[in-house]
Each structure stands twice: as structure tokens, then as C-alpha cells.
Amino acid sequence: MPPCAGRPVRFPSRKTQMAKDLNPGVGPQEAQDPARFEVVLPADISAISPVVSWVMHLVGELEYAAGKEFEIELALREALANAIVHGCKGDPAHKINCTVTADKNRGILIVVRDPGPGFDAASLPSPTEDQNLHADHGRGIYLINKLMDEVKYERNGSEIHMRKF
């Protein structure tokens, strides 16, 4: 289990023992609360897969996320990689914050925040233009925007909010 920060994880589904373990003593009203997962990870590429695996395990428990796992996983991987490579310049001394909130009515919201200066998403070159088709980078933000239903940039681009309904 990745190191969690902030509030304890809340998980409304009771389908598995894991869900029961995450919500000891959850009553009917509390089961309506959104699921929340927060982790702080080092800016190290090797930290991506364990976090993504954990988040996807949680997402897999949500009945309303069925069929959306691929899009969520790829967008999360891209956002974490961008935060590590661009926001933190690959320096594992820097930390990245990732929060996932899942609610049946509002969908799954993933927020990835890095300590970098940010970027202007509107100024990024399109990877679909002829001169960029063979570039070895520059597709992450494009993919995130195509895969998720809603994408917003906060804190000058050092924080991305991705939602899947």
C-alpha cells in the first residue's frame, strides 16, 4: 500500500474484503460519502506503477467506473510522468501529490500537483501537426485531454484536475 497522506481512505463499495477493511464501521449514511485516496510520492519514475496499481484497484471496486479503467489508468500515468519529468525535473527530492475522489454523481476526479513552475497548456504544440508527428515527446497532455471527460489546469499548470464521469 502506498503511503497515504491527509484523511483516511473512504471507499463506499462493500464488494470485497479490501473495501470492508478500508471502511470499518461504516454506516449507511457514511457509505454515501465519496471515496477519497491521497498519496504523496517522490518524483521518481519507479513510483508511478505502484500508485497507479493501487488507484486502479480502488477504481475497479466502483461499479460506475466499469469500462472506463483504460482511460483513467493511462491519463493518470501520463499526469504523474509529466509531473515527475517536467514539474520536478526528475529530482526525487521533490514530492508530487495525487488525490483521487470518486463519487457516483460527480464521477472520478484525479488531481496531480507538482512543485514546478507550471506551463501554459494552450501554448503546447499539437502532436497531430505534421512537424510533430515523429517527435519523441509531447503527447501526454493531448492524450489526457482525449481520454478524460473534463481537464482543468490550476496553479499556472502545476496542478491538473482530470474527471471521468
Concise account of the structure shown:
This protein is an alpha+beta fold. It has helices at 17-22, 48-60, 69-87, 140-147; strands spanning 35-42, 95-103, 107-113, 150-154, 159-164. The protein has a single domain (34-164), classed as Heat Shock Protein 90.
Explain what this protein looks like in three dimensions.
- This protein is an alpha+beta fold and 165 residues long.
- The protein has one domain: Heat Shock Protein 90, CATH 3.30.565.10.
- It has four helices and five strands; from the N terminus they run H-E-H-H-E-E-H-E-E.
- A five-stranded antiparallel β-sheet has the order 1-2-3-5-4, with helices on one face.
- Strand 4 (150-154) and strand 5 form a beta hairpin.
- The longest helix has 19 residues, at 69-87.
- The protein is globular and about 45 Å long.
- The two termini are 26 Å apart.
